[in-house]
Amino acid sequence: MIAAVVGMFAHWFDRKITARVQWRVGPPFFQPWYDFLKLLIKEVIVPEGAQKFTFLAAPLVSVASVSVVAALLIRTIVFPAETFIGDLIVVIYLLTIPSQALILGAFASGNPLASLGGSREMKLILSYELPFLLAILVPVVKAGETIRLGAILQYQGTEGAVIASVSGVISFVVVLLCMQAKLAKVPFDAPEAETEIMAGAYIEYSGAALGLFKLSQWMMMFVVPLFIMMLWIGAVNWRQTPLNIFFAALIYIGIILFMTLVRNTNVRLRIDQIMKFFWARVTPVAVIALILAFLGL
Question: Is the pTM of this model over 0.70?
Answer without folding.
Answer: yes
